[in-house]
Amino acid sequence: MYFDAASTAPLHPVARQALTAALDEGWADPARLYRSGRQARMLLDAARETVAAVLGARADEIAFTASGTQAVQLGLLGALTGNRRRGGHFVHSAVEHSSVLHVAERHQGAGGEVSVAPVDRGGRVDPAAFGALLRPDTALAAVQSANHEVGTVQPLGEVAELCAGAGVPLLVDAAQSAGRTDVPAGWSLLTASAHKWGGPPGVGVLAVRKGVRYASPLPADEREGGRVPGYVNVPAIVAAAASLRAVRAEAEQENARLHALVERIRTRVPRLVPEVEVVGDPVRRLPHIVTFSCLYVDGEVLLTELDRAGFAVSSGSSCTSSTLTPSHVLAAMGVLTEGNVRVSLPYGTAEADVERFLAVLPDLVAGVRAPLGLDLPAPEAAEPARSHPPRAEGRAGAESEERQATDEGASAGARSVGTGSERPEASGRVAHPPRAEGRAGAESEERQATDEGGSAGARSVGTGSERPETSGRVTASGRVTVIDALGKRCPLPVIELAKRIGEVPPGGTVAVLADDEAARLDIPAWCEMRGQEYAGEAPAAEYGGDRGSAYLVVRRTT
């Protein structure tokens, strides 16, 4: 089951038909005057008019690019260049696509200024905060129509009104929403990507309103209004336009169906899987995307297990193989970045496929967590004798279901769990098979040992035969329990914190030493989910570490 439409949607049947026909009829150079050239030009013009009608633009405002990323980059660079006399200030939201961030980095490196508008915990921009960043020298602003990782729809109408009042052009990245929803009015430049709506890959759209100052950042070319150099792929463009019109015609009915399926996932996953946070705005969101993060889970291993079970999903976790840094979107939202799963349903997804996903997910997550020896609440399905109300998202829901990771006063030197041969069974919990083998699995089972007194000279114990010993350290504010997680990648620092928070009396402080960047995000998020107090960050050296930071947690719940 393919559940990664936000990355790329399967080719729409209409696109396939149009592409096949256009390969026969539109193969010639549309710039030529002979018959086959004129025929290709007619197909290209018709496709341009179709795309313009769906996006609410004029045909002469539409240019086709080689990708959505290229459309974003050309749009941003062209608008910044065209408005350079106004100033060099660029404003964008903290959750924009990486193509926007890369242009911002380049612009800043060339001497320009960049301001980043924050988002709330749901990933939504505050229009007032965004408007406050606009200045007389602001050359351009950029806000996506909806977020590609969590599906949150942005308040574009309000942002556009503020930008218009300030005389600032607004670029809207509509890659995730084009074809699915109406494009809000008020944009100056708009970009989209055909493979997101079921068109062929290799076709992007750049729309520039008449009157918007735009200067191509590339050498001049006579094609595509001088905005995009190079030969155009007429057959692919024809297929992209045909599929855009088709999905837009189907959108109202299909969106309602997918919205109901996504709502089922949003509601049931927190009931079926303990310690899960569903992220993104629960109301103002795209109909086909849902994202959730699982505490104490290595994202790479979970995605591998889901793939083995027949489900293709995506992840923004820092512990996936594609990146060693946390998702900038999840980080900006202040939510958990570990064990992150994005489900994005393509058109035509069957209800039975969603039900099967919900059936296999709890056991897969439990299997990944099994070697850790954590005492977690049993999933709803494992406790038929008890009646549970639907679990609320966020901290309140987490607090109502939480159990202490270790018994009150339990020692840090619990039994070995790295080999999986002596996994302690929690009361009411279902036993699950050992987690998957491989690099990520080994990392999530590894343990560090520290010298007596909490020294920073930790040594790796890959077999799990020894666990790190917490140490007591007296500071000006009193005794602090130190957990040495230096050298460990996510989610291990959070796992060690969860295991040992129970050793600390209420009101006591734990200092987690970590040099993994994800810990800076995930430890505060864990505190938010578990009702503990995050007390800030300090140099690890103050607690016996030789590198990294100390993340301070005050125990508030039992």
Task: Please describe the topology of this protein.
Layout: H1 13-25, H2 35-55, E1 62-65, H3 68-82, E2 89-93, H4 98-109, E3 113-117, H5 127-133, E4 138-144, H6 156-166, E5 170-173, E6 189-193, E7 204-208, H7 234-272, E8 276-279, E9 289-294, H8 299-308, H9 328-333, E10 340-344, H10 351-369, H11 395-401, H12 439-445, E11 447-449, E12 459-461, E13 471-475, E14 478-484, H13 492-500, E15 509-514, H14 519-530, E16 533-539, E17 549-554
Parallel strand pairs: 2-3, 2-4, 4-5, 5-6, 14-15
Antiparallel strand pairs: 1-7, 6-7, 8-9, 9-10, 11-12, 13-14, 15-17, 16-17
Helix pairs in contact: 1-7, 2-7, 3-4, 5-6, 7-10, 8-10
Condensed summary:
The chain has 558 residues and is an alpha/beta fold.
Walkthrough of the structure:
The chain has helices at 13-25, 35-55, 68-82, 98-109, 127-133, 156-166, 234-272, 299-308, 328-333, 351-369, 395-401, 439-445, 492-500, 519-530; strands at residues 62-65, 89-93, 113-117, 138-144, 170-173, 189-193, 204-208, 276-279, 289-294, 340-344, 447-449, 459-461, 471-475, 478-484, 509-514, 533-539, 549-554. With 558 residues, the chain is of the alpha/beta class. The strands form four sheets. Strands 1-7-6-5-4-2-3 form a seven-stranded mixed beta sheet, with helices on both faces. It has a five-stranded mixed beta sheet with strand order 13-14-15-17-16. Strands 8-9-10 form a three-stranded antiparallel beta sheet. Helix 4 links the parallel strand 2 and strand 3 (113-117). The model is unreliable at 318-322 and 382-470 (pLDDT under 50).
